[in-house]
Structures are given as C-alpha cells and as structure tokens.
Design brief:
By secondary structure, the chain is mainly α. It is 76% helix and 0% strand. Helix 1 packs across helix 3 and helix 2 packs antiparallel against helix 3. The termini are far apart.
C-alpha cells in the first residue's frame, strides 16, 4: 500500500477548543508547513490532506461533540467520542481518496477504496482510541488549571 501513514490527528481537541472553521485554517497552515518544511505529504497532496484532516475530520468531530453534549453524555465521554470519530473520519476519507487515486485494475476505485479502508481504518482504530484517551486527559488538565472554560456542558 502506498500514499499514506497512520497517526493521531489532533483535530478533536482543536475542534472542541476553536470550532471547525478555525481548525480548517489552522489545518491548512500546518499541512502547508509540513509539505514545505518537512517534506511530509508534499504540495501535490495538500488538497486531499486538507480535505480529510482539516475539513471532514473536524466537521465530524464537531458534530459528534455537539450531539454527545446535547444527549447529556458526561464531558469526558463527549471529548473521547469527538476525538475518536474525528480521527476515524479523517482516515475514512483518506481511504476513499487513495482508492480514487490508485484504482484497482479489476475492482476499480470502489474495490481499491475498500482495500485501503481494510488497512488504514482498521489500523487506525487503536490509534483513534488512544487519541481519544489522550485528548480526554489534555482537556481535563486544561479545564482543571482553568486555562480554558469547560465547553459544551
């Protein structure tokens, strides 16, 4: 498999703190710096990376955060779900993008997307759970130290 790697995204915490609009701008800046200064991704993948990591992932995380808060979930559960689903949505979109970019000769883009999902989405599950737990701990410390107000609850 080519074209991607699995890692935490950090968008769950960012979207809780700043909202999806700001995260899209921050994500674009971070991805541009990564492309130019670290040769991670590169300029040719900037649009695809931006869509998955700076737009779709944060929007999904934000919607999950809002729905979990509205449903009355505990704050730590809401934070966890936001971070986990933002991370998983990012890799779901990445799998679709890679499937379109590298279609399978027999199964086409759909078959290729399913193959990418089998690899990236499955390997991302423990990473997303770990990111959710870490995000809960960071958010908890930020609110305990009153560096940010508790949001959504």
């Amino acid at each position: 498999m080519t074209g991607s790697c699995s890692h935490p995204t950090g968008v769950g915490l960012a979207v809780i703190l700043f909202g999806p609009g700001v995260v899209a701008i921050l994500g674009a800046i971070v991805l541009l710096f990564q492309a130019l200064l670290l040769a991670h991704g590169g300029l040719t993948t900037l649009g695809a990376n931006g869509m998955s990591m700076a737009v779709i992932g944060p929007i999904v995380g934000y919607l999950v955060w809002k729905m979990a808060c509205k449903a009355g979930f505990r704050r730590d559960v809401s934070v966890f779900l936001c971070a986990m689903f933002a991370d998983l949505a990012t890799y779901f979109v990445t799998s679709l993008q890679l499937g379109v970019a590298f279609p399978d000769p027999q199964a086409g883009a759909i078959g290729s997307s399913l193959k990418f999902m089998a690899i990236f989405c499955l390997t991302q599950i423990p990473i997303a759970i770990a990111e959710g737990l870490l995000t809960v701990m960071i958010y908890d410390q930020l609110t305990k130290r009153q560096l940010i107000p508790a949001r959504g609850h």
